[in-house]
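ok, trying the design again with the full structure, not the truncated one.
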């Protein structure tokens, strides 16, 4: 399986272009009070060790004076394609907080404590291969994690990705429950195509409901090969909306 290169390019400051969509090109933006915080947000959200992030600085931070004029740091991070993970440079690598405990061991230890100490009646089945760790959520309370379009499932996957990243892992973490991810992918693809047809018919942009980065990426991929349309993410922070535009003829 081909792998995504995690080597970071030279860091540079670029102006934010409101007319380009970083995610349609496989990129996502993150912010923080400083560069370290922005990188931490990206690492936790994407489940990629900080040293393997491929990013560029869009906006340098500024302290300001007496609290006036303070400005955070904004970075743009390249997203690995579905099923691909960052590749650690060399055979040994220098990843995260590697204390000798493997990513799988850390994840299993966390899941054991989660099952023991949380109020949820759930269990986990973990399967690993060279490129990813797949975790299947099972049990009586699974539906609680799927409420509100899988918000609980998404939050737990981000947390597990961060745990793996701290172990220096470069493997993708994939958490699912009863094929929810597959069903969600099909649902988003159908929404994207139906909205796309409406845009073509009316000749006017249409905006979808706010989504997390994982769902937004699925929408961008569903429409990326349609020459009559373009997609842009709009908003600030982790949750953004996607607007589908007709391309000028």
């Amino acid at each position: 399986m081909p792998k995504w290169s995690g080597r970071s390019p030279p860091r540079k400051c670029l102006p934010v272009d409101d007319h380009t969509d970083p995610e349609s090109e496989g990129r996502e933006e993150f912010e923080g009070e400083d560069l370290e915080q922005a990188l931490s947000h990206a690492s936790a959200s994407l489940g990629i060790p900080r040293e393997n992030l491929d990013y560029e600085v869009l906006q340098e931070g500024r302290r300001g004076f007496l609290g006036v004029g303070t400005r955070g740091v904004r970075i743009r991070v390249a997203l690995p394609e579905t099923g691909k993970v960052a590749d650690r440079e060399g055979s040994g690598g220098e990843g995260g907080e590697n204390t000798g405990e493997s990513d799988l061991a850390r994840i299993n230890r966390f899941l054991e404590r989660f099952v023991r100490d949380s109020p949820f009646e759930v269990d986990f089945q973990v399967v690993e291969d060279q490129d990813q760790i797949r975790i299947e959520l099972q049990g009586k309370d699974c539906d609680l994690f799927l409420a509100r379009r899988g918000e609980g499932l998404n939050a737990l996957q981000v947390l597990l990705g961060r745990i793996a990243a701290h172990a220096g892992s470069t493997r993708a973490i994939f958490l699912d429950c009863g094929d929810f991810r597959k069903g969600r992918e099909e649902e988003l693809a159908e929404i994207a195509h139906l909205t796309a047809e409406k845009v073509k018919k009316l000749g006017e942009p249409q905006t979808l409901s706010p989504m997390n980065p994982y769902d937004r990426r699925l929408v961008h991929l569903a429409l990326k090969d349609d020459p009559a349309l373009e997609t842009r993410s709009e908003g600030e922070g982790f949750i953004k909306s996607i607007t589908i535009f007709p391309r000028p003829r």
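Keeping the full-length input from now on. The CA atoms of residues 132 and 171 lie 5 Å apart.
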